[in-house]
Write a structure and sequence with these properties.
By secondary structure, the chain is of the alpha+beta class. The protein has helices at residues 27-36, 38-41, 59-72, 118-134, 148-157, 192-203, and strands spanning 8-12, 15-21, 76-82, 85-96, 102-109, 138-143, 160-171, 174-184. The radius of gyration is 16 Å and the shape is globular. Residues 17-186 form the N-acetyltransferase domain.
């Protein structure tokens, strides 16, 4: 079961990658990061269909909502840090137990650190935690077919391509197809991070 708060860390050759809860004190850095990366992020971010628009919460309200979800056991909302700098977010959502024991994972990262191996490391850390500590069996990531940067993340990690989900999420005014990538505990008996570290060493 979920214990919260949680902090996960991997000390990589390119600097430490840390997953930790988003804090109210992150407000200015978070807002600056989102503003700087608006054009980089907006094409891929889920929206709400017309007629169901809700006013965005304050940052403090946003953090409070994420914390409540984590304590309720329905999500794991992490900030991504690299070299002590906030560079993005990663959220495990839709956590189910019972016969499914599964969840989905999504993330965003600042363009200025993209391609450095930070996101694959963060994803591997989160998935290993979900398998070893939360007790889940399956994790999936859903990606727009046009999102080349995110497709490279799952390729580096060796996640299984399970095909296209048509009109899966609402993004920028339309229902968009996504490709589903998944991994189960049987796929990574030694952990996904260990597999990614071996891949990373081979790439150097």
């Amino acid at each position: 079961m979920i214990g919260w708060p949680v902090e996960l860390r991997d000390d990589t050759v390119f600097g430490p990658v840390v997953l930790r809860p988003l804090r109210r004190t992150d407000g200015r850095a978070w807002a600056r990061l989102r503003a700087t990366n608006r054009d980089w992020l907006e094409p891929w971010e889920a929206t709400t269909p017309l007629g169901h628009v809700q006013a965005p919460p304050t940052f403090h309200g946003y953090v409070r909502s994420l914390t409540a979800q984590a304590r309720a056991g329905s999500a794991l909302p992490f900030a991504i840090e690299h070299n002590d700098e906030l560079v993005g977010q990663l959220t495990v959502s839709g956590i189910m137990y019972g016969s499914a024991c599964s969840a989905s994972l999504g993330y965003w990262v600042s363009q200025h650190v993209a391609g450095r191996g930070i996101v694959p490391t963060a994803v591997a850390l989160a998935i290993d935690h979900c398998f070893a500590e939360v007790g889940l069996h399956r994790m999936e990531i859903n990606i727009r077919p046009e999102n080349a940067a995110s497709l490279r993340v799952v390729a580096k990690l060796g996640l299984r391509d399970e095909g296209v989900r048509e009109r899966y999420l609402h993004i920028q005014g339309q229902w968009c197809d996504h490709r589903t990538f998944a991994v189960t505990t049987e796929d990574v008996p030694d952990g996904l991070l260990a597999r990614w570290q071996r891949t990373r060493e081979a790439m150097q």
